[in-house]
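Exercise (ungraded).
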Amino acid sequence: DVKVTQSSRYLVKRTGEKVFLECVQDMDHENMFWYRQDPGLGLRLIYFSYDVKMKEKGDIPEGYSVSREKKERFSLILESASTNQTSMYLCASSSVAAGAARETQYFGPGTRLLVL
Amino acid sequence: AQSVTQLDSQVPVFEEAPVELRCNYSSSVSVYLFWYVQYPNQGLQLLLKYLSGSTLVKGINGFEAEFNKSQTSFHLRKPSVHISDTAEYFCAVSERGGGADGLTFGKGTHLIIQP
């Protein structure tokens, strides 16, 4: 089974702190994604990466950055956390290979971040 | 750019009754379509997907969906629901394949099963 893990389930930070959210996948997937989920808004794409050291902006990249130094790990960074970044953050990964898993994104359990 | 509309934010249904969760999309090109389910305090799990071929797609847990290109819809159905189906359901679309780019999600439909 594909496994996507996120470093924390719950996180509480103060305004202005630098925050790191870590995501690791164990299926050698090329693509990795960060979304935020807010009630009534669904999931929105923040950043994605299709290879090591490569990154692409999603729909709402402002206030965030990412790092992908190794294929299995994709980090989301909040340089200076603000209260409007309080949200659920979901990481996902997918493979470019053909087969039953084609075009399927696999999600981690999420990190619920509260910024005070 | 593509967009997804889930017409109902909540759908209450009695146990063992049929259910349909509605999803409409807009896009200027061909799309791939997905339904994901999120159980409380968990991540998202793929229910089913339409990439090509037969417009009736069967997924896990007895769910199915039908792609209707003329109506730009991808409604999710189950003939008989169970308490365990209580969850948030998300419809999603990708223009070039969710495997390569991110997905665009609808706002979700909360399915509430009443005993």
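Further reading is listed at the end of the chapter. For now, observe: The CA atoms of residues 10 and 115 of chain B lie 16 Å apart. DSSP finds no helices and twelve strands in chain B.
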